[in-house]
Amino acid sequence: MERAPDKSPHDLVGLIDRIVDSYHAHPDTQHLDSTFLPNRAKTIQLTELLRRLIFPGFFDEQRLTSDMIKYHVGDLLNQVHDLLYEQVRSALRYDLNRTAGNGKGDDCDDCDEEARRVIGVFLGRIPEVRRRLNLDVQSAFDGDPAAANFDETVFCYPGIDAIFIHRIAHELWKLDVPLLPRIMSEYAHNHTGIDIHPGATIGDSFFLDHGTGVVIGETTVIGDRVKVYQGVTLGALSTKGGRVWRGRKRHPTIEDDVTIYGGAIILGGETVIGSGTTIGGSVFLTRSIPPNHTVSMKLSELKITARPVRSKTVKAAAGDAEQDEQGQDFDI
């Protein structure tokens, strides 16, 4: 193995100085001297604790039994409570420092009280989140003939992983917790390839089939029993206005019992896809569709050409020879 070159102390000191100078030159990408800032690693740890709480027995290292489940839930709740309080408290104080300045968040006792209120409401919603995730798992099993059982969908389906994280992140989003829901949603995005903004409202029995490349924007509203295939975008028409669009409905509304096939792009805050409608693959839509319609792309003309096949024939006098069978063209 080739030996690394010796480091010159002078060069190293100069490099350190240049890097530190860049921190001061570009303050928006550093957080030096911050007293309160949410922790990404701990937020991910919190997400995984909630996964164990919501899907007992699936992701635990030890075998769980009915006799011990109450002790297990109590222990998990204590861990979730303490970690969530720490992160929500930091997020609220961080946000106040960011918006009000002057270190107001550092002395915000009301932030701690609000963190306790948020935690109480959030933990109280876990049974409802479990009910909705059970419907999502049922929908995945019912909608995919390749699914052998419920366990497979929980363990293996990226769509279930993404919707689990979305449902807990969305609860924190509704409680106006800064930053933590976005950290959770991007954790799901990194691991599944599915990008769901925590602000999106998604109804019961939601099924992401395959899911890779799906994008669902912040103000999207999705009804019940909706099925979405890979590569679908539910996005905004334009972001040229930048910050002026913040807080406005920019993404489509998808009503109940809609199916959207792979690669479809549906854009705009005023776009409504009516209940019972099917959107075909690769469709591009910027306008509303009434209920119980089918939208599909007109099939392009395909030209299929058979490749020449070389076959061996035996000739009595010359031995083996090759004869080309020329392919024929036909249109569809």
Description of the structure:
The protein has 332 residues and is α/β, with parallel strands linked by helices. The chain has two domains: 21-194, serine acetyltransferase, domain 1 (Orthogonal Bundle); 200-301, 3 Solenoid (UDP N-Acetylglucosamine Acyltransferase, domain 1). The chain contains eight helices and 18 strands. Strands 1-4-7-10-13 form a five-stranded parallel β-sheet. A five-stranded parallel β-sheet has the order 3-6-9-12-14. A hairpin with a 3-residue loop joins strand 16 and strand 17. The radius of gyration is 27 Å and the shape is globular. The N and C termini lie far apart (61 Å).
How would you summarize this macromolecular structure in one to three sentences?
This protein is of the alpha/beta class and 332 residues long.
Overall tally of structural domains: 2
Largest sheet: 5 strands, parallel
E-strand count? 18
Instruction: Please state roughly what percent of the residues sit in beta strands, choosing from under 5%, 5-15%, 15-25%, 25-35%, 35-45% or over 45%.
Output: 15-25%
CATH superfamily of the largest domain: serine acetyltransferase, domain 1
Instruction: Compute the number of helices.
Output: 8
Produce the secondary structure layout.
Blueprint: H1 9-25, H2 40-54, H3 69-100, H4 109-124, H5 126-143, H6 150-156, H7 158-174, H8 180-192, E1 195-196, E2 201-202, E3 207-209, E4 215-216, E5 221-222, E6 227-229, E7 233-235, E8 253-254, E9 259-260, E10 265-267, E11 272-273, E12 278-279, E13 284-285, E14 294-295, E15 303-305, E16 309-315, E17 319-325, E18 329-331
Parallel strand pairs: 1-4, 2-5, 3-6, 4-7, 5-8, 6-9, 7-10, 8-11, 9-12, 10-13, 12-14
Antiparallel strand pairs: 15-18, 16-17
